[in-house]
Amino acid sequence: MAEPADAGTPPLLARDGRGGATITLNRPRHLNRLHREDLLALQAHCATLAADPSLRVVVLTGSGRAFCAGFNLQELSASAADDRAGDDPRLFERSVDALAALPAPTVARLNGSVYGGATDLALACDFRLGVQGMELRMPAARIGLHYYPSGLRRAVARLGVAAAKRLFLRAEAVDAAALLALGYLDELVAPQALDDAVDRCVSALRAGAPLALQGMKRSIDEIAEGRADEAGLREREARCAASDDLREGLAALTERRQALFLGR
Q1: 136-187 tens-digit pLDDT
Q2: Which domain holds residue 56?
Q3: Does residue 26 sit in the same domain as residue 156?
Q4: Does residue 1 register a pLDDT over 60?
Q5: Which residues contact 218 (CB under 8 A, 6 or more apart)?
Q6: Which of these, 106, 70, 64, lies nearest to 191 by C-alpha position?
Q7: Which of 77, 79, 123, 96 is nearest to 38 (CA)?
Q8: Confidence at 72, pLDDT banded by 50, 70, 90
Q9: 190 and 81 in a common domain
Q10: Co-location of 227 and 111 in the same domain
Q11: Nearest-10 Cα torsion for 130, 218, 214, 241
Q12: Considering the entire predicted model, what is its pTM?
């Protein structure tokens, strides 16, 4: 049966012409729950952005009153019945991993509550800014679902074992203040202050040298997940040491001006 006309669309991608991009989840009528077509669109957007050398920062947000309600469980149950998931049983995992793998820094603009798989979608971003009144709930244990491995690894690496167990095993709603205390949120603001907070974060990231930002993002993630190797870390260090960006940064520091980085 076709969805109502106001059911929304797959995620939207907008570019600002200055190296910035915003991906907006766009099914507000259903709290931006994710369908298979949404995940495929998200993967396509990530592939487009990953191939763009001018990319500097990506913002992920939702439309309406919630950030995201996670995967559409009606499709999950249908897959179990007719094996439609056989085409790609790891579709959700691959989609979130594609977001996490973007070379440029990413910011989750959490305009409302976060449920189910959306907890990992937001965690895949480098920074998470949320609003007072939001909550998070990961109900996998309550429906008999073992969460996918990369999502569990990401939760442990970024939040720690105790916080990951609280979110996944207790499956309770966690309010905004607790999310800030757990380290899930980097910043918690009133709803009307969210755009200003995101703008400040984005501006700080734009001010950095792209090679250094992208290199250190990758290195930090690898170290946190226990998969870093010394050669890779040193290669990124050497690349930045020989870059035009470093020369520009040092010159700007000496001349007391804003650096103009070109990413090379």
Answers
A1: 999 999 999 999 999 999 999 999 999 999 999 999 999 999 999 999 999 9
A2: 5-206
A3: yes
A4: no
A5: 103, 236
A6: 64
A7: 96
A8: confident
A9: yes
A10: no
A11: 140
A12: 0.92
